[in-house]
Amino acid sequence: MGDLMDNRLTIITGHYGSGKTEFSVNYSIKCLEYYSKIILADLDIVNPYFRSREKADFLNKLGIRVIGSSMMNSSMEIPALTADINGAIDDISSKTIMDIGGDPVGARVLARYSNQISVQGYDMFIVVNANRPETQTLEAVKKYINNIEISSKLKVSGLINNTHLLKSTSIDDFYKGHTLCQEVTKDTGIPTVYEVAVRSIAEQINDSDIKIFPIDLYMREDWMS
Q: Do 161 and 195 touch, CB atoms closer than 8 A?
């Protein structure tokens, strides 16, 4: 299980609604306990909502540098952005987290960097929300993994169970995702590296065989359901 023993370069992807960006932000903050230099590269060009760069000021104050996509600032030139991303990938002194769009179109952004990434030690984790239609079954998750690997030209190395229904999430939802990820692990050999739950749910799970990664909801305001 994770335990922040992941490679220096960590790619996070997942379908819209999976909680991918929420995990990426929480993961970045957790990394502060292990690394002195952290870069969060938000390359999600698919989802127009709840992007990690929206919390850039907050994260920067914590000591996490956020690199946004070309949509972040229309005055930013593409070469400058590309240089930032290239630097983040190659900077062996930093923990670099890449938040990538969760469909094959979004993952295609990675393809342009695939050769550069491949020579690094890297992890690519897929966030699985068993309550989302795109990742509700073993076959659906396997198809999704295959599509992402083809589009990105990189290999998936881990699964993240982040099964939720926003503020309506129950313990049953968590275990639904846990069971699905275990099935995928058994079938594909890809390990389940993180089991995610909001703190109110995490505190109710007393299973010594499951190591929970508790998260806070940074990307949604209190009034959001």
A: yes
Cα angle value 78/145/40 (rounded, 5°): 40
Q: What is the DSSP string of 139-155?
A: HHHHHHHHHHHHHHTS-
* 171 Cβ contact list (under 8 Å, min separation 6): 201, 204, 205
Q: Pick 87 or 222 by higher pLDDT.
A: 87
How far apart (Å, rounded) are the C-alpha atoms in residues 22 and 111?
24
Confidence of residue 77 (pLDDT cuts 50, 70, 90): very low
Rounded to 10°, the helix 138-152/104-111 angle is 30
Q: Note whether 40 and 52 are within 8 A (CB).
A: yes
